[in-house]
Amino acid sequence: MAARSNTAAESTACELVVTRIFDAPRELMWKTLTVPEHLEHWWGPKGMTSRVHQLELRPGGAFLYSQRAPDGREMWGKWVYREIVAPERLVFVSSFTDEKGNLTRHPFEPNWPLEIQGTSTFAEDRGRTTVTVRMVPINATASEEQTFFDGSKFMEEGFAGTWDKLDKYLATL
Amino acid sequence: MVQQHTSTEQLNATFAALADPTRRAILARLASGETSVSELAEPFEMSMPAISKHLKVLQRAGLIERGREAQWRPCRLAARPLKDASDWLEHYRQFWEEAFDRLEDYLRELQKSESKKKEHKNGRKK
């Protein structure tokens, strides 16, 4: 394991990790996540038609997209890039927006308030690429953000076991 | 609008409270039923005031409730905020899993047409 960095992903109990091994080289994987023509083919849940309205691949630049459901409902969202290390690592803050890119609540779920920081990493092994996205909810203020970043060590404590227990309990509600 | 704002703060408070290992252990313990503060404190090498402090954080975040009826004021899990936080994470996971499913399909198409276009440059290995 590398020395602890000051990124959030390693150190919060509330992170969400989605990982997948794709049968494609890393350069291509990187393109599918950063080039509008590619993103429009897959970005978003099943059945949604995605359109890329803006994509500026630089720190502080934005990727603004819309997604239309089969029933016509439309939602907008954006990523603001924080760190770009092609083709290895992409850090962004993701949120829901209106058509102009102003932050909004989740259109269908008003209880969906937070911005998410996503850190995607791309690791290639013999032509296949593992893409991992770590997501943590982030808050607007620095001190609130600190709460997460200083938060306890997810892996070391085996919080997974605890969470399983809670999950089972929650399932009974 | 005010209602939504409360929700934002609620979710933030939930996640902040969950960021501490002792508090998560307390919640896990409470998942198997309500209990007294002294019983809760037992597994931890911690003073009662320290435990009380954690309980207060959890209570402020709305994650636990203290009974009023009995003298020992049992602690119990207040499930709603936890469920909201858990749903929220699950929804996000779902979103990405589905997008990745689509990406897999798309890559297959892409590589098929790529290999037709420039067969000699295809580095794909099976």
SS content category of chain B: mainly alpha
**CATH topology-level name of the largest domain in chain A:** Alpha-D-Glucose-1,6-Bisphosphate, Chain A, domain 4
Give the fraction of residues assigned to helices of chain B: 55-70%
The CATH top-level class label of the largest domain in chain B:
Mainly Alpha
| N-end to C-end Cα span of chain B | 54 Å
Low-confidence stretches of chain B: 1-6
Rough outline of chain B: elongated
The overall average pLDDT of chain B, rounded, is 79
State which percent range the strand residues of chain A make up: 35-45%
Largest sheet of chain B: 2 strands, antiparallel
Gross geometry of chain A? globular
Instruction: Note the total helix count of chain B.
Output: 5
Number of strands of chain A: 7
List how many beta strands of chain B DSSP finds: 2
CATH topology of the largest domain in chain B: Arc Repressor Mutant, subunit A
Could you give the topology of this structure?
The complex is a heterodimer of chains A (173) and B (126).
Chain A: E1 16-22, H1 26-34, H2 36-42, E2 49-55, E3 62-68, E4 74-85, E5 89-97, E6 115-125, E7 128-138, H3 142-149, H4 154-157, H5 159-171
Chain B: H1 2-18, H2 21-31, H3 37-41, H4 48-60, E1 64-66, E2 75-77, H5 79-117
Antiparallel strand pairs in B: 1-2
Please provide a brief summary of the model.
The complex is a heterodimer of chains A (173) and B (126). Chain A has five helices and seven strands; from the N terminus they run βααββββββααα.
What does this 3D model show about the protein?
- The complex is a heterodimer of chains A (173) and B (126).
- Chain A is an alpha+beta fold and 173 residues long.
- Chain A has 2 domains: 14-138, Alpha-D-Glucose-1,6-Bisphosphate, Chain A, domain 4; 144-173, no CATH class.
- In chain A, 24% of the residues lie in helices and 37% in strands.
- Chain A has 5 helices and 7 strands; from the N terminus they run E-H-H-E-E-E-E-E-E-H-H-H.
- Chain A has helices at 26-34, 36-42, 142-149, 154-157, 159-171, and strands spanning 16-22, 49-55, 62-68, 74-85, 89-97, 115-125, 128-138.
- In chain A, 28% of the residues are buried.
- Chain B has 2 domains: 2-79, Arc Repressor Mutant, subunit A, CATH 1.10.10; 82-118.
- Chain B is 67% helix and 5% strand.
- Chain B has helices spanning 2-18, 21-31, 37-41, 48-60, 79-117; strands at residues 64-66, 75-77.
- Chain B is elongated.
- At the A-B interface, strand 1, helix 2, strand 7, helix 3 and helix 5 of A face helix 1, helix 2 and helix 5 of B.
